[in-house]
Specification:
Blueprint (H helix, E strand, L loop, with lengths): L2 H15 L1 E3 H8 L3 H13 L4 E3 L2 E3 L10 H4 L4 H14 L5 E4 L3 H10 L4 E5 L2 H7 L5 E5 L3 E3 L4 E3 H8 L4 E6 L3 E3 L3 E4 L2 H12 L1 E8 L10 E4 L6 E4 L5 H9 L3 E2 L1
Parallel strand pairs: 4-5, 4-9, 5-6, 9-12, 12-14, 14-15
Antiparallel strand pairs: 1-3, 2-3, 7-8, 10-11, 11-13
Helix pairs in contact: 2-3, 5-6, 6-7, 8-9
Amino acid sequence: MLAIARKQAIREQLQEYKSVRITDLAAALNVTKETIRRDLHDMEKEGELIRTHGGAYILDGVQNDIDISTRRVLKMPEKEIIAQKCDSLIQSGDYIFLDGSTTSWSIARAIAHRRLTVLTPSLEIANILSVSDTIRLFVVGGEFSASSRCFTGNSAVRNLEQYFVDKAIISCRSISMEHGITDTNDNDAVIHRMALEHAREKYLAIDSSKLDKTSFARVAPASILDGIIMDRSFPIPWIKYFAENQVKIY
């Protein structure tokens, strides 16, 4: 198969699934892994995708979900920076909500030594914090989603409805000035929305790739936040936007 045909096949896979794995592409296209690596390298230089260890992904369109196996290894240094900033915002004795995002996995690891009460729908976070002697852990139950390693659905929403916290820390797929905080699906959006509504202080923790994008399901206006935590400095337009809406930046 010619390179032009291979790259078109890769584009089609990315458009449908948002992420691809080198091993899968090599098998499907009957070429070597090294050939696929070269194709992905060329396509990244052209700005068509973002390479990861073992594959590639795109952040494109309103349904821009990425498989959990890919997300868990993406932007790890950025997530560690965000986690340390979140740790500094949390006070001993706080009741906090952490969502099921891989960013929150990093936050959970950073706060595992703290004396806190943590509410989460995430099985992964529950596993991280279950070995802590200082964390009091509550898990929001519901239908288990293997793709996100979270409990979700109407039963999870009803379960979450009975709890209130000092601080809710959520992540999201996208945020824009026009459309606010958005997610790829309704299940995540409704959990995030309720967590924010039931929190005394509301925080969004994101890496810089989430700015100026819109996903399928709206969570809330960005103006309702008390603070937003990011891995790097915010662009000037966003600094002005948050200042106008009295949202602290970290």
